[in-house]
Amino acid sequence: MLLNLNFRVIGETLPEFWVGFVSTLSISLTAFAGAIAIGIIACAMSIQPSRLVRAPAVAYVDVIRATPLLAQLYFLYFGLPSFGVIMPETVIGIIALSINSGAYVSEIIRSGIMSIPHGQVEASASSGMNYWQQMRLIILPQALRPMVSPLIGQAIVLVKDSSLLSLISVLELTRAGQTLANDRFMPVEGLATTAVGYLIIYFGLKLMAAAWMRINHPSERH
Amino acid sequence: MFLEQIHGIAQYYPVILKGIGVTLALSFIGIVAGTLIGFVLGIGRASSHKLLSLVVGAYTDIFRGTPVLVQVFVVFFILPEAGIELDSFTAGALALSNIAACFISEIVASGIRAVPIGQVEAAASAGLTRLQQLRLVVMPQATRMIVPSLVGQFVLLVKDSSVVSAIGLLDLTRSGWIIVQSVPNGMLVFSVVGIGYFLICYPLLHLSRRMEKT
């Protein structure tokens, strides 16, 4: 069944797939930037001494991690209009992806910060620096290194998750495949091309992660 | 108004219960089948036989690199082209079991690789066959590292199962989609759906965190 693919049709519809591919990439990039911003804020809140500040951040991370993205997406998609908020589907999708990934990014940042030897934190505290100086000069530079691989992993998850936006009729890679499948009755060609598009992004990010590991952690074997 | 809507949602409780049942059934089939197949694939992936390891790695990469939604569509729309007719529940269970197996295989393989090489050499010099080394020395140690991640995989699977609503299967997410057609308050309806998932997933998340600490 994979041997008699109609490559002529795939060739003809490649421009539509390219649009979907670029859309998936730009949605993912925008949402990832949003996720980093939300993740930094949520993480900063979750390591504060005050319980009042911590609680909302911890609750946010737990609620997001214990519920599916699709339910979160529908929550906004069906929920915003009932409050009179009308937005394009793509924007709703990007917001949902950012909020969802933000919870995971927050956890990644937190474990990066936790991985710093406690002596470093105490030494920076006793050096007379204020909180932001400690963060900027001592804590973050050491915490960032172990975050890189998990962040690339989260980027992979985000790109795959963005396929759910096809269910609220955003034109991206999955939707492009469905369109070919439905309009021309060619489910095999449509879904195969879509899958190849995701695999290109997946292996690209995987190679990046591997290259980073080789440069920064040459001692570990993979 | 708000109370009316709560009452409206409450009237749909059979639909919600059926949805929770389908979500749990799919996740349960997925984790059982996925663990069994995942262990077999993982042993192949960690094998010193280069070709076997490569083939398993390529197979799991294809499914780890594409969205669950696309895979559900492939099973539901493409297998019939090859003459395999599936109802939506079987298609969903098949897609979820396969994706769970692919992720678990990678966990199992890294668990096996984490067993110190000296252990394997000692077992070999004690005269154990390859199979005995695996069964008596490697797997018992690897499994201890694998179990916490398996609980995390189960949470992922419960969440991923929501995607089967796209092929018309009445799971917990689909039940919300149905209710929202007649109770026009998306946030309220999907909060109820979210609470359903939260009650299933949160205890498991908590368990996996506690296991990883010990």
TrEMBL record, chain A:
Pfam families, sorted: BPD_transp_1 (PF00528)
GO MF annotation terms: transmembrane transporter activity
Any single Gene Ontology cellular-component annotation: ATP-binding cassette (ABC) transporter complex
Source species, domain of life: Bacteria
Bilayer-spanning residue ranges: 20-45, 83-105, 191-213
Location(s), subcellular: Cell inner membrane; Cell membrane
Keyword Transmembrane helix carried by entry: yes
Keywords for the protein's UniProt record, in alphabetical order: Amino-acid transport, Cell membrane, Membrane, Transmembrane, Transmembrane helix, Transport
Function field: Part of the binding-protein-dependent transport system for glutamine; probably responsible for the translocation of the substrate across the membrane.
Listed name of the protein: Amino acid ABC transporter, permease protein, 3-TM region, His/Glu/Gln/Arg/opine
Classification lineage: Bacteria, Pseudomonadati, Pseudomonadota, Betaproteobacteria, Burkholderiales
